[in-house]
Amino acid sequence: MTKQTKVSYLDESGKLSASCKHKISDAELIKGYKTMLTTRQVDDRMITLQRQGTISFAMSSYGEEGCVVASAAALELGDWLFPQYREDGCMFWRGYTIEQYVHHMFCNAKDPILGRQMPNHFGSRELNVVTVSSPLATQIPQAAGSAYAMKIQGEKTCALCYFGEGTTSKGDFHVGLNFAALKKAPVIFFCRNNGFAISTRVEDQFASKGIASKGKAYGIESIQVDGNDYFAVHEVVTKAKEKCLAGKGPILIEAVTYRLGAHSTSDDPTAYRDDAEVEKWKKRDPVLRLKRYLESKKLWDEKKEKSHLSKVKKEIDLAIEAAKGTPGPALETIVKDVYFEVPESLQKQYEELATFFPEG
Q1: What is residue 272's predicted lDDT score, i.e. its pLDDT?
Q2: What pLDDT sits at residue 13?
Q3: Cβ of 235: how many Cβ atoms within 10 Å?
């Protein structure tokens, strides 16, 4: 098997290779960096809230913000995103506010899905971000089908589907790729290869060398990219969309990155990896790499850094207070919108339950 070439331009010191011809405006780079910083701060506070017992569950994208934000930045608002659960950065890039996100994490009456799902299962109809589902890989055939619909209707848009490398062991991965390849659907399959499926390492999941080779088996062009390199990810997604809209079918992107934090607040990563490994990957931190690049171009400095972090902290504080003061979803939301019309049996169950909660 031929070795997969990994696209990479930005090194650990923030130096951009002269071989990078892809152009990103200064304004977009600064927005991308701010979005990554915001995502990291929000994730950190949500974990703290879970540890305090204020919310029930939280997940962090610590170490993976670069590939998520850069990929979202390479697309347009009209393109559809199908996240897995570690992609809150794409929400913030598209304009989702910190307060909106915190309401979702509290699962209260202002949560768009009204507490029907766990925290970190975000989505937004207005932003074309499909709500996260707990079962792994369900979003893959959904994205393929959605993209095929775009093709049939002649829309100049594509779908981008996020998932982790562990998800490629699920049947839906193979079904989705095969369907998309056969129909030449304009979908970008974006795998965040962060090294672990919870506690299971990549080498214990499959014998193939990475994920990109799996796409080739279905006749899909596959690319491996440094997932912590903002420029490289932005470039491969930009080109992938161009190929999709040119009718060349789906693209599989394997973004090689690393999960610096725990899988979730239910996980203890010290049980299956050592600190030395984590410290090695911290040197490849996508946030730090882009920061160093921006500083070298005089586009960022410590004063701007402190100002932005202070602004984000205040927004988070205010959002938490607002969420704490917001009641839970109305009792009727247990059955409302689940079916087009509430079945008689479910209505009777709801009426019986309502007798225990007279305030509704």
Answers
A1: 96
A2: 97
A3: 22
**pLDDT given for residue 175 in this prediction:** 97
In a domain, 85, yes or no: yes
**Residue 295 belongs to what domain range?**
6-329
Q: Are residues 53 and 180 in the same domain?
A: yes
**Token pair 């506070």: residue:** 45
Closest CA relative to residue 140, chosen from 215, 67, 228: 215
Cβ atoms of 199 and 267 closer than 8 Å: yes
Residue 259 known to be catalytic = yes
Backbone φ and ψ of 119, nearest 5°: -60, 160
Distance CA 56, CA 118 (A): 8
Neighbours of 261 (CB within 10 A): 20
Q: Is 263 a catalytic residue?
A: yes
Together in a domain, 220 and 88: yes
1: in domain: no
- Same structural domain, 314 and 354: no
Residue 345 sits in the same domain as residue 240: no
Q: Is residue 105 assigned to a domain? A: yes
Residues 247 and 350 in one domain: no
Query: In terms of domains, do 317 and 336 share one?
Result: no
**Pick the catalytic residue: 259, 284, 289, 292?**
259
C-alpha radius of gyration, the chain, whole number? 21
d(CA 243, CA 201): 32
Among the listed residues 229, 136, 147, 228, the one whose alpha carbon sits nearest the alpha carbon of residue 181: 147
Same domain as 339, residue 323: no
pLDDT in tens, 190-216: 999 999 999 999 999 989 888 999 999
Checking phi first, is residue 131 left (phi over 0); if not, alpha (psi -120 to 50) or beta? beta
Per-residue confidence (pLDDT) for residue 1, from 0 to 100: 43
What whole-number distance in Å separates Cα of residue 327 and Cα of residue 110? 9
Active-site pick, 45, 263, 284, 292: 263
pLDDT below 50 — which residues of the chain? 1
In one-letter notation, the amino acid at residue 231 is F
Q: How far apart are CA 281 and CA 255, in angstroms?
A: 15
Q: pLDDT tens across 126-175, in order?
A: 999 999 999 999 999 999 999 999 999 999 999 999 999 999 999 999 99
pLDDT of residue 163: 98
- Asked if residue 346 and residue 311 are part of one domain, the reply reads no
